[in-house]
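Run: sequence + nicotinamide-adenine-dinucleotide -> complex structure.
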Amino acid sequence: METGLRNRVAIIAASSKGIGRATALALASEGTHLALCARNANALDQVAEEARHLHGVEVYTETFDVAEDDRVRQFADAVHGRFGNIDICVTNAGGPPAKSFAETTMAEWDRAYQLNLRSIVSFAQAVLPYMQQRRWGRLITITSIAVKQPVPELILSNSVRTGVLGLVRSLATQYGPDNITINNVGPGYTATDRVKELAQTNAQTSGRSASEYESEVAKDIPLGRLAKPEEVADVIVWLASERASYITGQTILVDGGLYRGL
Ligand code: NAD
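>> structure
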């Protein structure tokens, strides 16, 4: 299937590991040039080298925290200066800590808002005017199944991420006339460091090992296993492609059937 992604330019935020990394490599395999950011320069450079070596695409990297909105804007401007356009922007960041409501602090609420809602606003503000100029664009947010079905002990994620749905729906309406599609992808349990982090937190309270936690989680998933990050990345690639040109304002869960709603 022709994706139409060759020589497009994509920003992928928080792409040194996990779903962001898998998305970067999946887009590179379609011939898309990449602009990557994360906080860890070494890990990010490895992803960039892999994309260049395996797929021959150009890759630009910058190291910063996506909660710093001035850095997000500077990054987007630098990407535009380097490539001449920004076609695709995939927003991403680390998830908030797993805590019960009573354990959370106001500082953690502020950080969750900055990381998992405000950073998306920063990217959207920075890239949409460039997409408007060319009358083509794809903004894709990575959130969580938590936007449809709260996840136990993830009160920060459950609360803050639902705001992204309102943002995505509103922006899809506003920017549809510019031929820009805006969609959200909600991963279920996916085999990355994030799940290891959740398993560790769970081990402290329940005494279960990480593999026991994963088996327990998998029991509730109709497909009976965690996702591979590449399986989430494939959906993002499809949304970015010409094949999804009439899809906008949607949330697509990649959760192996875990969400039980209609
Ligand atoms: P991960 O821990 O494997 O990777 C997170 C990436 O984000 C890393 O590259 C890290 O360096 C980067 N990052 C973290 N905080 C950052 C910051 N402040 N600024 C810049 N970069 C930052 O996690 P993942 O599993 O790939 O998860 C990606 C997103 O999807 C997270 O928001 C996570 O909460 C969410 N999610 C994950 C799962 C899962 O089961 N893995 C399920 C639902 C939602």
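>> summary
The chain has two domains: 9-188+228-248, 191-226. The two ends are 30 Å apart (CA to CA).
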